[in-house]
Amino acid sequence: MAENGAAEGTAQQPQVQMNILGQFIRDLSFENVMAQKGVGGEVQPDVNVQVALDAKKRSTENQYEVITKLNIESKNKAGGEVLFVLELEYVGIFNIAGVPEDQLHPFLLIECPRMLFPFLRRIVSDISRDGGFPPLNLDNIDFVAIYRNELARRQAEAPAEVTN
After folding, report:
1. What's residue 138's pLDDT?
2. Does the reported pTM lie above 0.70?
3. Which residue ranges of the chain lie beneath pLDDT 70?
4. Which among 90, 92, 89, 93 is positioned nearest to 60, based on CA atoms?
5. How far apart are the first and last CA of the chain?
6. What are the sequence ranges of the domains in the chain?
7. What count of other Cβ atoms lies within 10 Å of the Cβ of residue 108?
8. What CATH architecture does domain 2-163 belong to?
9. Which region holds residue 101: left if phi is over 0, alpha if psi is between -120 and 50, else beta?
10. CA-CA distance, 22 to 8, in Å (whole number)?
11. Is residue 22 packed enough to be buried (19+ CB in 10 Å), middle (13-18) or exposed (0-12)?
């Protein structure tokens, strides 16, 4: 009897569906500072990667736009000179159905960027290589940690806004 109840409960839950309808580079900038300044010789890069995420509903039902912004700065460890700066804004258009409303926000800012990440990694690798540097292969990004940090930051700011 319990097996039937479990099967019925599973059948009632909506099936989550996610399709990537499109993905594209919205904005891309690469600046080879090292070449512009004529810096040469042996360098040891120190790479700093900053990630920002955003999502918004589109006018079509169940469609969302998810934006991943990367700001990457590579500096020489020895002198601190900037070697290159790469800024990338990458967008995915998703059709999402069956996700409960209270879980949609984390789904958009965790699962969708996770699906786009291999493409971002490839673009960063190609651009850094084509810019005259060894290919920069990004480590995996923990989108769950980024989401939690952003929630904590917003909660910390909320009491400050109420008292002002």
Report:
1. 95
2. yes
3. 1-13, 38-41, 160-164
4. 93
5. 58
6. 2-163
7. 24
8. Roll (3.10)
9. alpha
10. 35
11. exposed
